[in-house]
Task: structure prediction
Amino acid sequence: MGPYAAAYERSLGDPARFWAEAARDIRWRTPPERVLDDGAAPFYRWFTGGELNTCENALDRHVEQGRADQLALIYDSPVTGTQARFTYRELRDETARFAGVLRGLGVERGDRVILYLPMIPQTVVAMLACARIGAVHSVVFGGFSPRELAVRIDDAQPKVVVSASCGIEGSRVIEYKPLLDEALERATHKVGDCVIVQRPQAHATLVSGRDVDWDHAMADARPTECVPVAATDPLYILYTSGTTGRPKGVVRDNGGHAVALRWSMTNVYGVSAGEVFWAASDVGWVVGHSYIVYAPLLAGCTTVLYEGKPVGTPDAGAFWRVAAEHRVNALFTAPTAIRAIKKEDPEGRLLKPHDLSALRTLFLAGERLDPGTYEWATQILGRPVIDHWWQTETGWPIVANLRGLEPMRIKAGSPSVAVPGYDVRVMLPEGAVAPPGVEGDIAIRLPLPPGTLLTLWRDDERYVESYLSRYPGHYLSGDGGTIDEDGYIRVLGRTDDIINVAGHRLSTGVMEEVLCAHPSVAEAAVVGVRDELKGQVPRGFVVLKSGTDVDEPTLRGELVRAVREQIGPVAAFKEVAVVQALPKTRSGKILRGTMRGIADGDDVAVPSTIEDATVLDHLRPILRPPQRQP
Ligand code: COA
Ligand code: AMP
Result:
């Protein structure tokens, strides 16, 4: 039996023992009493009775154990033309000071702090400072609208919000402060204080008595020590798209998270202390939480924080420049970024001038890795390109080719095999396990391993209903797929209304809610259609209220604007068509899957349950080819 098979078997056969061994790589203030606590199943808890501090494990511990002068963080920002480097000692000191700022503002263990910040070092410092004092951070991605931010403020009820005067998108300066002010106005929860990072590119007007300038606050702050917290205490809440207007607040613990992430660096990514890890994502997403901030630091690596795009900052050679300049050993990004590079530099010419000798592996996740992108990346890099599958909910990989534990044969189109700890199964609708090769719902038998979600913030019921009720004893991933005879899993896409636009997870249901709120719209459908660059993009179809007399181009413009304003630019909602009717089943369900299939150019059969097949006939020319609108 190879190392992977042995580890996998042990992880499922005796999970408590397996994870107790992994937990030795973490510093505990009080050792756990129970490794796997099933006392309140299906709410499993890891390392109960244990106490630790995640920030201590990510920073202080390395400072004390000989890494004080090693780089912890490299900030590389082509959009501002700046770079900054922080050793472990410097990052610890900044973090301890900002923890003091938060303390001074009355933030205590268990209090929530919302971070609405761009990709700047202060974001990493703020996250770790929360962890240091046992506060719970919730990072909100900068591409979300004030309305979405307000929803999160009302749900998390933070004492403090940390934000910045602006973010920079390519060459555009996006002022964050007006967006924050609007969100605070909209929210019913009243935030105590806001700490604002003033960036040279935009000056934010501070509200006296509420807003505090980051630099001023830091100048007077007293460093604060790490506070031990329970392993089961929440470290952060990260909101992700659900099927309703209310996002799901995924709750992550301290103990399980630290153990699992630390384990993943060695076993999944094959990266050691002292090496350089770069996740080219955004801290607003789970990839950023886990693999820009926590995992590389827990493992004693140097992490790269990149404020830029794969293309246009300044060109499609940007990733190769960063990887070469900082001697990156492992690079992690989304397939869409590679597609963007490929589109602009198909021959890989911009890669040639760079010395990528340090780079061992390219990891890709966040959306399906299409074989064309996989092959192109493999060919131009001449290194393993590793697809792996996971979600905000799990926080770390479910299916991967474990580069540290035992590198395996790569089968293009499959992220490879189940990671130790995850008992992955494909389920058929009636609840049986699907035979090899047969498509079904990808589920994971409980308990999930450490580091995965504890519940949804203040909503245990929704957690059970969304994830645990479809197949009792199993977590429902929301993705469909297959497992072959060798245990290789293929992920075929979401089975719900979630779409993946440029690696960003969005709900079409929420977009439909926005469209339906327009006074002229009777009903709406939004489907995610295939897109060469972004993987998927949303397309909307609306039916007008009878007797409505509107100018269609004006209406379309209003609808596109409404989605942008209410959800955010990140929704990339640019196409909407007015149609006579939507195709439905006899029971009134909109046939979104059929619409998507036609739009994608697939050979789709008309479902026998359709109410009126002529509706679909009328829709076909509109669905295909896409009618791009300005
Ligand atoms: N703050 C404000 N606005 C933001 C934003 C942020 N943090 N992030 C994105 N936006 C805006 C963009 O400016 C754009 O606005 P526009 O419609 O006015 O042009 C819109 O949201 C869509 O952004 P994006 O999805 O980034 O598309 P793009 O066309 O600007 O760039 C890619 C396309 C492929 C280059 C880009 O999506 C990319 O780098 N993707 C990598 C994905 C990734 O990191 N995913 C995380 C999971 S691993
Ligand atoms: P997020 O929670 O934003 O990380 O998005 C998770 C979703 O992205 C998953 O449920 C999948 O639909 C999709 N996804 C992530 N990684 C992959 C992958 N490697 N292959 C296919 N789909 C993926």
